[in-house]
Design goal:
alpha+beta, three-stranded antiparallel sheet, 14% strand, elongated
């Protein structure tokens, strides 16, 4: 039997990234403004968090338009969904649920 600690994903475990992954896991795609509003973070903070998830291969990014009228959207990838599911199971093991 394992404690669950070894299964925690350090990329996902950061609170803002965990919250973003939770939102992405239940949506087809989510826009930058939606995430910023619901996570209550600055543009720069959200960009940093989402860049970490993108670098890990957990989210894909699409951009429509350019400049101020452009929209950035995020989708969870297959690898991201698998990592998020594994992370949730580890948290449940740790919390005894």
């Amino acid at each position: 039997m394992t404690s669950g600690l070894e299964e925690l994903d350090p990329v996902i475990h950061a609170p803002k990234r965990l919250a973003a992954m939770a939102m992405l896991s239940t949506a087809t795609s989510v826009t930058f403004p939606f995430l910023r509003e619901h996570l209550q973070v600055s543009d720069s903070d959200l960009s940093k968090q989402m860049s970490a998830l993108e670098k890990a291969g957990y989210v894909s990014v699409s951009k429509d338009g350019r400049g101020r009228g452009g929209t950035t959207s995020y989708r969870i990838t297959r690898a991201g969904r698998a990592a998020y599911t594994k992370h949730r199971k580890a948290l449940t093991a740790i919390l005894g649920g």
